From TrEMBL:
In the N-terminal section; belongs to the HFCD (homo-oligomeric flavin containing Cys decarboxylase) superfamily. Residues 15-227 are annotated as: Phosphopantothenate--cysteine ligase. The chain holds residues 178 to 404 of 404 of the full protein. Its cofactor is FMN; Mg(2+). CTP binds at residues 102, 112, 130-133, 149, 163, 167. Catalyzes two sequential steps in the biosynthesis of coenzyme A. In the first step cysteine is conjugated to 4'-phosphopantothenate to form 4-phosphopantothenoylcysteine. In the second step the latter compound is decarboxylated to form 4'-phosphopantotheine. Coiled coil: none annotated. GO terms for molecular function: phosphopantothenate--cysteine ligase activity; phosphopantothenoylcysteine decarboxylase activity. It comes from the Bacteria. It comes from Sinorhizobium kostiense. It catalyses: N-[(R)-4-phosphopantothenoyl]-L-cysteine + H(+) = (R)-4'-phosphopantetheine + CO2; (R)-4'-phosphopantothenate + L-cysteine + CTP = N-[(R)-4-phosphopantothenoyl]-L-cysteine + CMP + diphosphate + H(+). Pathway: Cofactor biosynthesis; coenzyme A biosynthesis; CoA from (R)-pantothenate: step 3/5; Cofactor biosynthesis; coenzyme A biosynthesis; CoA from (R)-pantothenate: step 2/5. This is Coenzyme A biosynthesis bifunctional protein CoaBC.
Length: 227
């Protein structure tokens, strides 16, 4: 009840949020990307700031406006995102919402790749990107609360649970990003909150409402261990 009274339950807490897609260059004019809009991550950064937290938002390329009351660090590539997240440590809270590209081109071309008449199209050799959530979840300066998302198109709960373990997160918000759900790019979300004690189904609601509910959960968790 305190939490809803207009108080700032996260005053004095530092939070790092990632949001948006990453762009992984192929050559100077082309890149690999995904359909993330940044809406959910930006909404979470804004909600944490409303709750009084000192928020650093590390955002990939998005077209939506910067949220109010938040320090925004813009990046393009996953490796830049990792570097900026690490530079923002220490923190009490990390919420990794970005749809980080899982792979990048092993060696992006320095000049625009040209068509060569009569030759086969150029192959793209991919290499895996750093897993930022996993790095933070196992870091020596690990934030007290580490939260991730799990974007799935099948076996949402099981895959989300496996990510919780593998990445050392306290909570995973698992969602079904199949095109038919309209979640990727849309304004609404339906998530399952996966914690160490079990799973909680949240009703479908606006991404801003998911953000508010998550900020309240974070405040509740941290209230239990005041410094
Ligand atoms: N994540 C990250 N760095 C990556 C990949 C993912 O920080 N290189 C984070 C995302 O921000 C999200 C969580 O890990 O909070 C899960 O992302 P997701 O893409 O669902 O999982 P992956 O581990 O990449 O597995 P896959 O895409 O194969 O399902
Ligand atoms: Ca992924």
């Amino acid at each position: 009840e305190e939490l809803l009274s207009g108080a700032k339950p996260l005053a004095g807490r530092k939070a790092i949020v990632t949001s948006g897609p990453t762009h992984e260059p192929i050559d100077p004019v082309r890149y690999i990307a995904n359909r993330s809009s940044g809406k959910q991550g930006h909404a979470i950064a804004a909600a944490l700031a409303r709750f009084g937290a000192d928020v650093t938002l590390v955002s990939g390329p998005v077209t939506i406006p910067d949220p109010a009351g938040v320090r925004v660090v813009r990046v393009e590539r996953a490796e830049e995102m990792r570097d900026q997240v690490l530079a923002a440590l220490p923190a009490d809270i990390a919420v990794m919402v970005a749809a980080v590209a899982d792979w990048r081109v092993a060696s992006a071309a320095g000049n625009k790749i040209k068509k060569r008449p009569g030759e086969a199209p150029p192959p793209l050799h991919l290499t895996e990107n750093p897993d930022i959530l996993k790095i933070i979840g196992h870091h020596q300066a690990r934030p007290k609360l580490v939260i991730g998302f799990a974007a799935e198109t099948e076996n949402v709960a099981e895959n989300g649970r496996a990510k919780l373990e593998k990445k050392g997160a306290d909570y995973i918000l698992a969602n079904d990003v199949s095109p038919a759900t309209g979640i990727m790019g849309g304004d609404r979300n339906r998530v399952r909150l996966i914690g160490r004690e079990g799973i909680e189904e949240w009703l479908e609601m606006g991404k801003d409402e998911v953000a508010e509910k998550l900020a309240a959960l974070i405040a509740e968790n941290l209230a239990a261990d005041l410094p």
